[in-house]
Amino acid sequence: MTGEITTLPDIDPLLLRILPNPRPGTPPPSSKLVFGKTFTDHMLTVRWTSAGGWEAPVIGPYAPLSLEPSAVVLHYANALFEGLKAYRSNTGRITLFRPDMNMSRMNRTAERIALPTFSGPALIELISELVRLDASWIPQEPGHSLYVRPTLIGTQNALGVGPSTSALLFVICSPVGPYYKGGFKPIALLATTKHVRAAPGGIGSYKLAANYAPGIIPQLEAAMEGYAQNLWLWGPEHFLTEVGTMNLFVVLRREDGATELVTPPLNDIILPGVTRDSVLSLARSHSSTPLPGLPENFIVSERAITMPELVSASKAGRLLEVFGAGTAAIVCPVDRIGYLGEDIIVPTGERGMGPVSEVMYREIVGRQTGVIPSDWAWVVKE
Ligand SMILES: *Cc1c(COP(=O)(O)O)cnc(C)c1O
């Protein structure tokens, strides 16, 4: 059998049409911002069909989408998303933080549900154009940013379950305030044995829309017991996996005296976070370029860790820190973990964040805001 090679058009930034919003809004005062409730003047849309490939991109006014009630996304959750932030650096430049990582993850997720893939650099160029156009919406205050939400949905009007023959990629932007206002706020976790977030062979390692609504009830149940988030476990061994919608890190003092930073290895049940990757890269760079504040005898481990190991480390006084890592909070310290009816108390230091997480927070924010030069910050040319 000879395969026929057909090359359909990829996303092409040169074809971009810009329709300026005739009624631009006024950004609210930064102190009034609530995460994900305010949107900028414009959005990017790019349509795709299986017959014609990607169509010309359009940046137009932020506005409702029009979908038929038979659109597959409304029935079978042919939907995925990304989340990244644009920052106003200390020199006034606009930067995106590691957008290449989001593009490769978005393509990997699209492939998983038979939605079309695309050129990552092309979408970064279009996102840059959108952010540039709505630059007045990027809050200037330290710790503020513009949250960028690329989304891809299947739009075919058909009730059969199969690859969607049409799709819509859109990007919307929302100005956000700092996750921490007036000091770090450690959170309590409920290590839940009742629900699972992800299972081997499943879809937990993809940023698919279908992964998120099922976490709402477990989170409400945790909240009713006085915990902010779920600590998702897996298997009869009670392997630790993730925290709410963040990756998980544990800091232990080993019996040989070394400090060990542990995170579960990437597999089917772990979302490959950009922040997770940044924490690991920074921690690993410490052996050649020491980061002030990190211990000398410091080991970085991507390995499985169970609740029984955490409990025994805690009892031996060797549990030093637990934190979540994700784009919204960057680093989120944990001070308490409910497990089988008891609470494990986790040290958080005087400032509400342990020494390792505090270094990670400082180093990542420094690179996001341009205080520390880094090729992780992609400049949006103005
Ligand atoms: C998005 C997400 C993360 C964090 O990923 P970042 O790229 O660091 O923002 C972690 N876990 C889950 C389940 C997620 O959806």
Automatic annotation (TrEMBL):
Molecular-function GO terms, alphabetical: L-isoleucine-2-oxoglutarate transaminase activity; L-leucine-2-oxoglutarate transaminase activity; L-valine-2-oxoglutarate transaminase activity
PROSITE patterns registered for this protein in UniProt: AA_TRANSFER_CLASS_4
Enzyme class: transferase
Catalytic reaction annotation: L-isoleucine + 2-oxoglutarate = (S)-3-methyl-2-oxopentanoate + L-glutamate; L-valine + 2-oxoglutarate = 3-methyl-2-oxobutanoate + L-glutamate; L-leucine + 2-oxoglutarate = 4-methyl-2-oxopentanoate + L-glutamate
One Pfam family this sequence matches: Aminotran_4
Sites of N6-(pyridoxal phosphate)lysine modification: 207
Assigned EC number: 2.6.1.42
CC annotations in GO: mitochondrion
Keyword Amino-acid biosynthesis applies: yes
GO BP annotations listed: L-leucine biosynthetic process; L-valine biosynthetic process
Cofactors, names only: pyridoxal 5'-phosphate
Keyword annotations of the record: Amino-acid biosynthesis, Aminotransferase, Branched-chain amino acid biosynthesis, Pyridoxal phosphate, Transferase
CDD domains for the chain: BCAT_beta_family
Family note: Belongs to the class-IV pyridoxal-phosphate-dependent aminotransferase family.
Name under which the protein is recorded: Branched-chain-amino-acid aminotransferase
Provenance organism: Calocera viscosa (strain TUFC12733)
Origin organism lineage: Eukaryota, Fungi, Dikarya, Basidiomycota, Agaricomycotina
